[in-house]
Structures are given as structure tokens and as C-alpha cells.
Specification:
125 residues, Immunoglobulin-like, four-stranded mixed beta sheet, three-stranded antiparallel beta sheet, elongated
């Protein structure tokens, strides 16, 4: 009885090892993704509603940038917004620009794969 139990345990252990090794050796032809950068968005052009804009710091004025993408039915329409100088202006994920201090900064909007972009130069006085 003890011998039969050990034989069954050995078979189960071997089966488990085969499953684990098979899972570890799974062939994945896709290269590793770095935060989705390897996935093509399908966006070929981005246009902003402003190329240049002056914000009044004393009025705490904000600017809502809007991006028009081409084609309008692109597979992935996610956009990434960035400020070149966050001590001058910040930008939200929806393109709302807020002044922080005097100076000039570029607001850049990118397609999710960072292959297409548009820029607005913002001056804060």
C-alpha cells in the first residue's frame, strides 16, 4: 500500500513538473511591451486648436487645448499630454493647461505609440 501511494505521488509530481515546464517554455512571438508603446495607434495626424497662446498668471487663466486626430476612427485614440516645463505650466490628461509661473513652455500631445505629435507654445506673463 505504501509503495502504491509513493508511485502515485511520483506520477503526480512528474505530471506537475511537465505542466510547469510547458508553461514556462510557451513561445511568445510578440516582443515585450513598454507601457503599450509597441502597439500602433493608427493615428496619422494630430492638430491642436492653438499653436501659440499667452496666459495671464495674475488672472489664473487656464487654457483648454483640444486635439483633432486623423483618422477620426483610429484603433487607439488615447493621447498623452506633456509640458516641457512644469514650473511654467502643467497640463492634465484632457489637455487643460494651468499656469504655475512666468515663462514659456511647450505643450506636446502624442499618440499612445508616440509616433505622431502636435505642439502648442504657451507663454505665461
Amino acid at each position: 500500500m505504501k509503495r502504491k501511494f509513493l508511485s502515485v505521488l511520483l506520477v503526480l509530481t512528474l505530471c506537475f513538473c511537465v505542466v510547469v515546464v510547458s508553461a514556462c517554455n510557451k513561445n511568445n512571438d510578440d516582443p515585450p511591451s513598454d507601457e503599450g508603446d509597441n502597439i500602433e495607434s493608427g493615428i496619422t495626424q494630430i492638430e491642436l486648436n492653438y499653436d501659440n497662446y499667452v496666459l495671464d498668471l495674475s488672472e489664473n487663466e487656464t487654457l483648454q487645448l483640444t486635439a483633432q486626430i486623423t483618422p477620426s476612427d483610429a484603433a487607439i485614440q488615447t493621447l498623452i499630454w506633456e509640458s516641457s516645463d512644469t514650473s511654467v505650466v502643467t497640463v492634465s490628461g484632457t489637455g487643460l493647461v494651468s499656469p504655475v509661473g512666468e515663462g514659456e513652455a511647450e505643450i506636446t500631445v502624442y499618440s499612445s505609440d508616440r509616433k505622431v505629435s502636435a505642439v502648442c507654445i504657451v507663454t505665461v506673463e
